Amino acid sequence: MLKRWRQTVTWMDIVVWAIGVAIGVAIIYGTIVTLREGRYTTGQWINLTIDGLKLGGIYALIALGYTLVYGILRMINFAHSEVFMSGPFTAVFLAKYLNNIGFYNAHPIISLILITLLSTVVSTTVALLLERIAYRKLRYAPRLVPLITAIGASFFLQYTFRGLYGNDPETYPNMNFLKGMWNIGSITVPKIDLIVILSAFLLMLLLYGIVQVSKTGKAMRSVSEDKEVAALMGINVDRIIVYTFALGGASAGIAGILYSLIFQQVHFYMGFVPGLKAFTAAVLGGIGNVVGAWLGGTLLGLIESLGPNLFLSGLGIPAANQLKDGIAFAILVFILIFRPSGILGERVSRTKA
Amino acid sequence: MKTETSSSWKKAINSGLISGLISVLITLVGLVESFARSDVIRGVFTLGEIILFAPVIILTFSALKSASNSSKTTLVCISAVIGLITGFILTLLILLGQAVDLRVMFVNASPSLFNMLMRGVPLPLGALLPPLLCVLVALLILGIYLIPARPRSAIIRGLLWVIILGTLRDQLLLIDLFKVPAISSFLKQVIFASSGLKPIGALLIFVITAGSAYYSSVRKKGTATNQSIKAQKTKRIITIAALAVVVFSLPYALGIFYTEILDTTGYFIMMGLGLNIVVGFAGLLDLGYVAFYAIGAYTMGVLTSPGLGLFHLTFWQAFPIALLAAWLAGIILGLPVLRMRGDYLAIVTLGFGEIVRLLALSDWLKAYLGGTQGIQGIAQPVIGSLEFDTLQRLYYLILIGIAILAFIAWRLKDSRLGRSWMAIREDEDVAQAMGINLVLTKLLAFSTGALFAGMAGTLGAAKLTSVYPHSMTFIVSINVLVMIIIGGMGSIPGVFVGGLVLVGLPGLLTEFAEYRLWFYGLALVAMMLFRPEGLWPEARRKLELHEVEIDRELPSSEVASAGQ
To answer: For a Cys staple, A271 with which of A65, A74, A85, A210, CB 3.0–4.6 Å?
Structure first.
């Protein structure tokens, strides 16, 4: 037993695991200290959890785009964060216009539908253009080439939108409809938070249904399994890839609106950090896996909002919330090191991408 | 025959629509207006106009190329159609802009932009100007296209020189050498106007550059293999010696303004040489490369800055420690990370880069790293009594640094280790089967790259005598990456080309600064689509990148020959 163990485990593994164990101990210690000292009330914890859930839902929706594309093309669509940005950054002008003519607060639901529609259309268009112009020609290129193209496309889109709409952030007008609190049992939840959480969840359910049940969804899954065999089975691979990009773009567009309802401000750089986190979520859940995207997104949202207060402040680190993004990136690094296939395991075949 | 003409009509209309839409995009992004002030030839055309007509130029050229064996009338029709459609789309934009206030949404759609598109002519007539001009430009392109190949390339080269020199007018006059009264008065009276070139100057430049290009192309054809090896060798030595003299005299010949740019370019070239080992040689995409620059710079800062008061070392005492710190950081990050797939590696390194920046920014480590304010008062290198405290003196230090790093990279490239790196880049599994220790080899690439960046970091810190977390962004990593990709991955001269084109040139063009990343993104995509091997390709890399095409072409040609 010991001999076999010694053969399979290299000193590299030992170093890696030592780092892992050290971090685990630090997290547990920090958590215990925080909880024992009772720094935060139950109400505060509940608020943080709700924050985490709503962010998590948004991450999950963005992560879907990464996961679907990665499943089929084995490439990280780095420009997906700009697909996410383009929708809400365009729709803000419609929202402002509607607000100016007084329609926005008079018919909030119709306005929301219109804005979401515009955002979805723009994001989908950008995603499709990306696929057509930048990626299609590179489908058989060495693996670094499409990734570098995606990075280039990401910057190009960022600065195109900066040039078009300007350097300054735009603000979504306030909507009275979304203000106020709802009581669920003994806890009060901001209305907007609940709306975001619920709509993200329902959308994920819908998208899961599309991928699992519909004929195109089945075709998508078979293409991600094996492109050539799928083509032999009479599936138009090109069309399925286009469809995948469209689905990812649409969900990113909707996620963008949910995101801007919470944060209100939109600007050309808004996609970068959520995009990176959504990618983390996709990897965390297991890339190529729709349920994994949801699980990873939710988990990441929760860790991000609870984590700094839970274990970092317990370790005596001041202003722990500054390191919120750091935690998300650290999770990404560690997931990729210790369990690169994610929680649910990836639906990507084991061939090297 | 009829179907052929109808398909070329369709193609021309398509090209026209695409070029029109790109022109609208370029206009609304603001490129045309912000470059409108830089004249190329005073009173004739500006850089903004070149950018406005660039889509027409490029698409007409490519359309003509794909329809090269059509009759001349077809070619005329094609270029006219492309120009006309592009122009009409611009006309539509103008009319839309007059009807609705586009400025609510598009910040650049200002009255002055429309005025410029109409070239100051009032509305009914002015709106018809873009189609007219676009058709003229397209026909001009056709004219150039119809010239035989050799004079054509000479003419194109001449035109490019005119555009470059005209654009850089202000910057060229800042050169110290040109401030000598005789030269300066010649330049100002004959060549340069108050902005851009004078028509006579432009003509002069065009004749000289196009003429010399044509002459050298004719001569090359005549004496291709006649030169003896010895003659070639002496010629090479002379070129190298001349280059060395030029490089050594640059800071004093060009002046402070240029030395500053050269210094910055120098750091980027150092980083590029390092990243070239990681990405170019070993094929490991590192998107958080700035982290190692930051570690080098911050170690230098922490060890020498009196402001923090932690240590009081001199530059040279801290230098090896900083290098060691960067190298160790490379190993520590590399150990766990290098076992994962290529594209995951890119994301993890990106995450690592962000973590380093966030840590440097945080209040938590403020006592050690200075938080948002960074570290000031970093020591500058001193050798004997010579203090490297001016930009010009630092230039020589950077030059030495680059020389050492370039030498190391050059020697590594064809060493056993270098060949292992390239084997890994081409196929990991096969490399492993050949007995290469994957992890160790990758780790060496990663840590060597980190070391190079660390060295750039120490010198960068010494130049500014300060470090700030805000200058350690993801964008720096991308900048270096773009540099080596444009230059050619794996190619050492490519790093220099990339550095001069992507760091040096933008440093000169201040109007350019706002659109720098836009151009970078465009350059990355265009490069990957059309010339993945870079401007100065490395031979083996080029083969590798075109391998897929060769593979895909082979079976079909075999089938074709079997069919016969």
So the answer is: A85
